[in-house]
């Protein structure tokens, strides 16, 4: 997920926006009533993979347009605490799912954050009946980030291991670029000219009534698509969200998106590409693209960035297609952008800056209509919107207050899961969880209840 980059240096030229509402710090009262902020600090819990939350509750009123949102939450619950100090990539990038047996499951990475880790299954895992007590397990069903298909099967995006290549045995590249940040050469190839093993989309499929998952390679119908190699390794990366459309078709919003434009020039800055499948995910045809067109007045180093990455793509209840993207990368902290489509993804509004920073945004719409957005780095933030004014967001609620953009308190990757018409779980990492006389990495989960006033 943009090669999940480590915390970047702070670009002095990136403009600042209004601060977050730091959960755990004193919040100023608003015209709608006091913002109560006491118990959002991390609560004490044993340094063990099993913990139970207390009954403390926080209530906050947030203005959202002409409406008032009431947000309630108890303290975070510990899922797992690291037994020692770990480097970047370990105890990070948590995922959350409702398992087939009704239990809650969480997985997190236990390997270096590297292209060499693609396709590896090293992870930690825990399960819970109700979200308040978590038990570590060695294995979990592979039911994370799956999509139900009209034929009764389930599918999910799969990333195979990156393969070492000999450029002399590859087709002629259509472009090349020296990645100064990693000091590696990037070569770009037309997708249709690549060896077969590097073409298409890799998925896992679970047939109806079958517990096993099977790897398959779906057809990618995109004559202008381009893929890259980096430092002599060829990954097949197709990361993002797959959503079901009302007619049973599937729509994917993915990155990295490179293509040859109408002038015959290769777009070496990543965009977000949208593909549709009418055959249960066995082939995917290009529908539209959001090319990297940043706001260079807002972000003065935008031209040095990798592009738009880590899209959160969601189909809202009114039919609006919403996409939030990351731009933070190794050159520095960058803003998140949003774009919307009102014609089923055929065209998209020009991307607009919607937050000062954030990585791997996650979107969720509750049954009561409230739209939830989580993201992080630095810190971990929640924002809210609603169907009456899609694209207008509340103040950001901060889970892990931080001293500045260089303050690494979390990997910033989160996940969301609805647990009722007005409530959801948020999972995230905390790099400074108190464990005896030391601070350790930990995976935390927290339930929120949101109602519109």
3D architecture notes:
It contains no helices and 32 strands. The strands form six sheets. Strands 9, 10, 12, 13, 14, 15, 16, 18, 19, 20 and 21 form an eleven-stranded mixed β-sheet that branches. Strands 2, 3, 4, 30, 31 and 32 form a six-stranded antiparallel β-sheet that branches. The protein has a five-stranded mixed β-sheet with strand order 1-29-28-27-26, with no helix packed on it. Helix content is 0%, strand content 45%. The protein has a single domain (21-40, 55-367, 381-452), classed as Neuraminidase. It has strands at residues 21-22, 58-64, 67-73, 77-81, 90-98, 104-110, 123-128, 135-137, 147-148, 154-157, 163-164, 175-179, 184-190, 201-206, 214-221, 225-230, 233-234, 239-244, 250-260, 266-277, 283-290, 309-315, 321-326, 336-341, 352-355, 359-365, 371-376, 380-385, 397-398, 415-420, 423-435, 438-452. With 453 residues, the chain is mainly beta. 42% of the residues are buried.
Short description:
With 453 residues, the chain is an all-beta fold.
Helix-strand layout with pairing:
Layout: E1 21-22, E2 58-64, E3 67-73, E4 77-81, E5 90-98, E6 104-110, E7 123-128, E8 135-137, E9 147-148, E10 154-157, E11 163-164, E12 175-179, E13 184-190, E14 201-206, E15 214-221, E16 225-230, E17 233-234, E18 239-244, E19 250-260, E20 266-277, E21 283-290, E22 309-315, E23 321-326, E24 336-341, E25 352-355, E26 359-365, E27 371-376, E28 380-385, E29 397-398, E30 415-420, E31 423-435, E32 438-452
Parallel strand pairs: 1-29, 15-21
Antiparallel strand pairs: 2-3, 3-32, 4-32, 5-6, 6-7, 7-8, 9-10, 10-14, 11-17, 12-13, 13-16, 14-15, 16-19, 18-19, 19-20, 20-21, 22-23, 23-24, 24-25, 26-27, 27-28, 28-29, 30-31, 31-32
